[in-house]
Specification:
- The chain has five helices and no strands.
- By secondary structure, it is mainly alpha-helical.
- It is elongated.
- The two termini are about 25 Å apart.
- Bound molecules: ligand 6S0.
- The site of the ligand Cc1ncccc1N[C@@H](C)c1cnc2ccsc2c1 has 9 residues, from helix 4.
Length: about 120
């Protein structure tokens, strides 16, 4: 009983921290390419190349509708954004550079908040 309650508390705290982290990601100056789903009509080839699209608005929706069981599952979706970005964009491009900058910021912040 006590163990279950402790586990539940840590999950609640972990997911509350994910909301804080997501707000910081969305507010970051380099977040612009990742705020909403990539419009595959505006970006030829995207739907073919990127099997699991992800963006911050989708993560927010999933947080609000309780689709993350814990902070680890949240981290998986955030990293998916950066993996998709590296797969589709040249490192030496506007969006590629934004992706690297966001990943560096995220890696630092989640370690501070969740580890
Ligand atoms: C993250 C990402 N990866 C690959 C392509 C696009 C994007 N971002 C979208 C928002 C985006 C970003 N910039 C432009 C410029 C013309 S369409 C468009 C769409």
């Amino acid at each position: 009983e006590k163990k279950a309650r402790l586990a539940q508390d840590s999950t609640t705290k972990g997911l509350a921290t994910c909301r804080v982290l997501l707000a910081e990601l969305e507010a970051h100056q380099d977040a612009w390419p990742f705020l909403t789903p990539v419009n595959h009509k505006a970006v030829p080839g995207y739907r073919k190349v990127i099997k699991k699209p992800m963006d911050f608005s989708t993560i927010r929706e999933k947080l609000i509708t309780n689709q993350y069981s814990n902070w680890e599952t949240f981290i998986v979706d955030v990293n998916l954004i950066f993996e998709n970005c590296e797969r589709f964009n040249e490192d030496d491009s506007e969006i590629g550079r934004a992706g690297h900058s966001m990943r560096i910021f995220f890696d630092k912040r989640w370690a501070e908040l969740l580890m």
